[in-house]
Design brief:
The protein is of the alpha+beta class. The chain contains 16 helices and 20 strands. A hairpin with a 3-residue loop joins strand 11 and strand 12.
Length: about 450
Amino acid sequence: MRSVIVVGGGISGLAAAWELRGAADVTVLEGHTKVGGKLRTGTVGGIAVDEGAESLMALRPEAVDLAGAVGLGDALCDPAKAPTTIWTGGALRPLPAGHVMGIPADPADLAGTGLLAPRAVARVAAEEHLHAAPLTQDCSVAAYLGVRFGQEAVDRLVEPLLGGVYAGRADRLSLRAAMPRIAALAERGGPLLPALRRMRAAADAAAPAPAAVRGVAGGTGRLPQAVAEASGARVLTGTTARSLERLPGDRWRVRAMTGDGTLTMEADAVVLALPAFAAAGLLGPHSPLAQEELAAVPYASTAVVTMAFSRALAPFLPEGNGFLVPPVDGRTVKAVSFLSNKWPWLRAAAPDSFVLRASVGRFGEDDLPGRPDRHLIRTVITELHRAVGPLGEPVAARVTRWDRGLPQYEVGHDERVRRIREAASKLPGLALCGAAYEGVGVAACVATGRAAARQVLA
């Protein structure tokens, strides 16, 4: 049986190991004490909460299908239905239904919401009368949508959603990589609003749309361990790969550091399921081009502040699933999820508590997530009180930091990924996967992991 070493025990690497089950002898090397990467469950006030991703994209099937395949199908659940809400202008304001990354199919739905000034609403509505030649090359989200809809629409409708997904900035993120549905319409040419209306009409005529995301009862942090167990792979935690060496016959040698010293292993193939900067360090001796391109992928650092409030003591508890915040408003918080409202399983598990989490940190704010815990917690409480009302003081709180946690898909990202993969293809028995390539969500990471496994098997 052929052997494969998977370097990285996040969901991408574990998905690769699962895809390889029964076809290769697989060893997963993970530097931390637990597998899972940014899928991790902790506790606040004794209540299980997700510290990283809290849901799985359901509009594409890879993550949900994998959860079912590894025995978590009965644990999958839908969030409570609620509109996407923006905190701006001193109030929580729902986005109109049927929007695509903040862009409404019918600008008239914006009237009276307070999301945009009347002149900005008129500017959005004027888009369908603007000439639009087919988009032929990548550009930033802001560069394209700002011309089509106006800068205020980008700042207050699109930017909050991009911040929630990428912790990125509209003036730097690639339209093709960050908003592929909009980019596909732009490449056909013509105004966007009529195309969005057709998309909305088709969706309304179809069967009731399923939830866009799904959760896992007990936390999505359950998924990595379930995948690891179902894969049958040998999983070595506390084991950090330090170097790769090519051997005769297109085999590979991996040297790793453990708590007991250096570990040396050999295999027929290697899957690097690492952040771009970590993969760059290992590939330098073998592909300077891949190293250069991987090292150039920028990352944003973020933090998650999770708090539990006593329902008996809280003067007020908010409704809805949470809210997003436009960076232009100058707040520290970029997104808040009311977990006890959003996930029925958590409300059932802790009926006397109200649990929420706030995200802070966008690209270019790398110093913000590093502030002391007490400062971040106090800032979040202050802004929550302004946004939703007097919640009182939490009975428990914790801060989780994700240093260089989210890759930034800047203009030209797709071409960069093409160059990386082309360079890596010249190294037989090696494949790359992870959030740095074709998507930062769990489903996209699972897809890259399984594709990497098929590549080394071929």
